[in-house]
Write a structure and sequence with these properties.
single chain; 348 residues; alpha/beta; five-stranded parallel sheet; four-stranded parallel sheet; 9 strands; 13% strand; globular; binds zinc ion
Length: 348
Amino acid sequence: MTDHDLARFVVGLPKAELHLHLVGAASVPTVLELARRHPGGGVPTDEAALRAFYEFTDFAHFIEVYIAVNSLVRGPEDVEALVVGAARDLAAQNVRYAELTVTPDSHVTTMGMPGEAVAEALTSGRLTARAEHGVELAWVFDIPGELGLPSGERTIDWVEQHAPEGSVGFGLGGPEAGVGRPQFADVFARARAIGLHSVPHAGETTGPETIWDAVRDLGAERIGHGIAAAHDPALLAHLAEHRIALEVCPTSNLRTRAVESIEDHPFATLRDAGVVVTLGSDDPGMFDTTLQREYEIAHDVFGLDREALVDLAEASVDASFAPDDVRWALSAEIDAYRPSTATDPSAP
Ligand SMILES: [Zn+2]
C-alpha cells in the first residue's frame, strides 16, 4: 500500500476527536485572521512570515507561539473565530464530532472578557460549526493547572453559571509536575454534581501515580494522555477493567519530549494490555500535526492495519460523551466503512 492510498483511506474514515485544545488547534488561516484583526500583537500578519513563525522548532518556541496566539484572543468574536476555524479544519479531515477543550479562565481572568460573552461566543461558534462545516462540537472546560486551586474554583464557578449547550466534560491541563491532582478534588466533585464527566490530563510528563490520583481523587472517566500507565501493570489492569479510556496524542508526546522518539511511544503496550486507547491531536496547529496524521502514524509506526484503524475510530466514539443520536449515526457510518464489509472507497 502506498502512503497516498493510506492517506485517502484515513481521510475517508469518519472520525471523532476527543483531545483538542481550542487555542492549540488554531491553524495558520485562523491565526492569520486573528493577527490581521489585531495588528501589532507580535504575530506576523503576512502568511509566509506567519508560517515561518508557526514552524515547530522546540518546546520553548511552542510556548512562545501559544502565548502569542492566546494574546490575540481578546474578544468574544476571537473565541468564535477559533471555534469555527477548528471546525473547518476538522471537517477537512472528516472529523464529525469533537470534544473541544476550552480554558475559560484564560479568556475571562487573563484576557478580561465577560464570562457571559465567552459562553455566548462558544454557543454561536458551535452553531456555525454545525451549519457550515457539519461538525458536532461538545465542550470540555479545563483548569490551567499552573494557576492552582484559585483558578480551579474560578473555572467551576464559570461553568456552574454559564455552561453552554454541549458541555460534557471537566478537565485539568497545564504542567503536571508540582501541580498535585488531589487538590482539585472538590472542584471536580462540583463539576460531576452538575453532570459533567471527569477528563483530567495525567501521566503525560509524570509517572503512574498521577494517573492513580486522577482516578481516585478526581473520578476520572477518561485520562488526557495517561501514557505513563505503561509502567504500571496494576494500573493498566485497573484502566482496562473500568474502561477508563486514554486520549493518546503521539505527536504531542514527541514534541513535548514526553517520549524520546515516536518508536519509543507506549501506544502498543497500552493497547495490548486491553486499555481503551483513543487518538487525539492535542494542539495540532502548534505541533504541526492533524488527527489525520495521528492515524497515519498509528499505521506507519505502530503497525495498525486498516481494520484496526477503523477499530480505533470506533473506540473514540464509544469513549465519547456524545448524545446517543450522534453516537449511533457516527458509529454506523464507521462500521460501514470497514474494509471487510464495505467496498473500499480508496481502491482505484
Ligand atoms: Zn492536552
